[in-house]
Amino acid sequence: MSQYSPSTTDGPAEDETPATNPSAPAAPPWTQAEIDRDEDVDSTLGEDDDFADVHPSCEVIGTDISPTQPSWVPPNLRFEMDDCTASPWTFAPGTFDLVHLRYLCGAVRDWDALYAEAFRACRPGAGWAEAVEPSVRVHSDDGSVAEGDGSALADWGPLFELAAARYAARDKDGGAESQPRSVRVVEDGIAAAAFRRAGFVDVVERTLKCPLAPFPSDPRVREVGVYARWAMEEGMEGFALYLFTHALGWSHEQVTVYLSRMRKELRDKKKSPYLLIQVVYGRRPEAAG
C-alpha cells in the first residue's frame, strides 16, 4: 500500500479545489502516525514499496487482478491476486487500519458495493479508507488545450466517455445485467458520495491538478509533470487500445496514429495540459451500541 503524498500531485495552492468537511482532519492521519495493517487495491510497485519502507512495522498487502508484481520487495510487503469488484472480499471484517484504492475508473460497475467492502474491511473506530481517481479529461488554464479545439489532448476525455457509453450499451444489448463502468468518477462526484453511503465519517474530498508536462514554475510540481508525462506516454496504449477498437470500432492503425498525436502534443512546449486527480478519504466509526 502506498500512502497519499501531496508531493506527487499537488500544484500551487491556487490550483487546488478542496471540498472538505471542516470538522475532519486537514491531512490524512496515516501521514502523521504509524499504522499496523494496510491494504492497497490495484497495487503499483514503487508506491507499495515506498509505503512499506516508510512504515516498517506495518503489514502491507497489495492486491491486483493481474500477477504483475515482482517478488523482490520489503519484508513487510506481499502481493495477492484478487478482484476488488467481487463481493464479499476475502479479508475478515475489521482487518485493516488503512485501505487504499487507486485508479479504478472504467473498471467498476458498482461503486457503492466496492466502498461498502472497503468499509467492512476497515477497523471500527480507527480504520481509514482512501480512494484516488483521475479525470480522463485534459485541461489547461491558458487555453492551450480547450474542449473542441481538435487536438488529440482535448479529444482524450470525450473519446473515453463515448467509448465507455457505447461499451455499456453493447453489454446491455448482449444481455449483460450490469451497470456501466463509469470513467466520470471525478466529474460526477462518485467517490465522496459513495463513501458517505457506505457509512464513512470525517470524509474529506480534494481535487488536485496533475501536470502532464514539465511546464509549472514550481520545481517540485515541474518534476511531477516529467513523471506524469512519462506515465501517460507509457500507459496510454494500454488504456485506449481495447476500448477504442471494441467500442468505437477503430482499427489498430487508427489508434496508433491517434496516440502518436497525443505523444507529440505532450511534448509541445506551447501546451500546458493537466488532469484533475480526486482524493477522497474517510474513517469507519465505532460500531453502534
Describe this structure as you would to a colleague:
The protein has 289 residues and is an alpha/beta fold. The protein has six helices and eight strands, in the order ββαβββαβααβααβ. It has an eight-stranded mixed beta sheet, sandwiched between helices. α1 links the parallel β2 (37-41) and β3. α5 (219-247) runs antiparallel to α6. The relative contact order is 0.17.
List keywords for this structure.
single chain, 289 residues, alpha/beta, eight-stranded mixed sheet, 6 helices, disordered N terminus
Short description:
With 289 residues, the chain is an alpha/beta fold.
Widest sheet, order of strands: 1-7-8-6-5-2-3-4
- What share of residues is helical? 25-40%
**DSSP E strands, number:** 8
What's the overall geometry?
globular
Unreliable stretches (pLDDT < 50, length at least 5) are 1-22
**Main pleated-sheet profile:** 8 strands, mixed
β content, as a range?
15-25%
How many helical stretches?
A: 6
Taken in chain order, the helices and strands follow as EEHEEEHEHHEHHE
Mean pLDDT: 83
Structural class: alpha/beta
